[in-house]
Amino acid sequence: MIRKLSSTFVEKVWGVEKLPAPFSHPSKNRIGEVWFEPPPELQQLLVKYIFASERLSVQAHPSDAQARSMNLGRSGKSECWVILDAAPDATIAAGFHEEITPDAMKQAAIDGSIVDMLVWHEVRPRDTFYIPAGTVHAIGGGVSLIEVQQHNDITFRLFDYGRPRELHLDQAVKIAKTGPYQSEYRSRLDTDAGVLLDGPHFSLSFWQCGSSSPAPPLDDRPTLLIPLSGEASIGNDQLATGECALALDFDPQSISGDCFLLLAQPNSTC
């Protein structure tokens, strides 16, 4: 048995003028994100789609400890991206080319040179990136992705390409990592099943239903089911691309159909 989560469309200046199928575009304005309301049984995690026609701001998020020290709640924000679609030569930024000082980071944010100090990684569908709290990052234009994150949206912007939005230089520099992005945080979904991430806050697995590969092992905890492609029948319920559902007692044997699923769970200490 599953319960589908309700969704909210979020307007963003960098969003798209027309959402791809299966989403319908709910307004005349650009839509940048689709959020799925976290259920009471699993408030720790938020799942969203992100659709970017332009580069997002250069930003960073605090860790749990940093958020608490800044009186911003008990939870920081680490996240994981799964690329759904990417225009030719599309990129995302994560980490710096070399170690820098906080003062150099702040000055580069002020004059805009921080964009060139970042490493811009070319992306294609099914590339994945774990973005731990503190990582300076940005999503490039022409990229669509699914994001699984801690349920907190504390964002400190360093640079926003001249858009009239607030920056948070002092806070960002205080919490940001100042070095390169670790290569082991990048991966690809190039098999039928596996564990993408087993992090301090959540785990993320994947499985091609109907394949010869067994489902990855999961803990006995609430699970979010996120179809990356296709459709599946789970008991008497149907789940398709563009939806997200909660399973309190997930049984892979109950699934039929051809569907590539992401499976997200909170970790034992979250």
The amount of helix comes to: 10-25%
Count the DSSP helices. Answer: 4
Contiguous uncertain segments of 5+ residues: none
Order of H and E elements: EEEEEHEEHHEEEEEHEEEEEEEE
Euclidean distance between termini CA atoms: 24 Å
Number of DSSP strands? 20
β-strand amount: 35-45%
Structural class: mainly beta
What composes the largest sheet?
8 strands, antiparallel
Shape: globular
Radius of gyration: 18 Å
Average the pLDDT over all residues and give the rounded result: 96
How would you describe this structure to a colleague?
The protein is mainly beta. Helices cover 10% and strands 42% of the residues. The chain has 4 helices and 20 strands. The strands form 4 sheets. Strands 1, 14, 15, 16, 17, 18, 19 and 20 form an 8-stranded antiparallel β-sheet that branches. A hairpin with a 3-residue loop joins β14 and β15. The radius of gyration is 18 Å and the shape is globular. The chain starts with a strand and ends with a strand. The mean pLDDT is 96.
